[in-house]
Amino acid sequence: MNKKFKKVWDTFTTILVAAVAILAILLVGVRLFGLQVFTVLSGSMEPTYHTGSLIYVKSVDYRELEAGDVITFMLDEDTVATHRIVEVVPDEDEPEVLRYMTKGDANDAVDGSLVHYRNVIGTPVFSIPKMGYFANFIQEPPGTYVAISAGAIILILVFIPDLFDDGDKKKKKDE
Q: Which residues are part of the catalytic machinery?
């Protein structure tokens, strides 16, 4: 195989593998650092978090939250939201039980119900715009199949030059 082509090929596959590794870390590996990843599905927090962004959320002590903080919380068993705290509301009978009045930055009115402290997942640490579209795509068929196929193709591309090099080495040994 031509040395120049091999060098270009090696560079290309190295970049490709590095990109896949970075994507894997961004989508899954951050869990090792205690972060959870969510996709922003609505524009309620524009311009702070754009629709389609991935947000990375870390756990937080609910007692340290105050008005102005952004929280990610469970609305119900299937729905997660990220809104800003407008007011911290202690329970009248049990002051250690906190609830939070929240509002999306782009919304005109506060949310219809208070968020119980047990429903708080954490606070967003950072976000990556538009990456949520990709994350959602690969989590559902046919996107899952495309991602698996792309991974297999990348593996094949990485090892193709080695298959040709073995043949070249054998020819040189025989001569």
A: 42
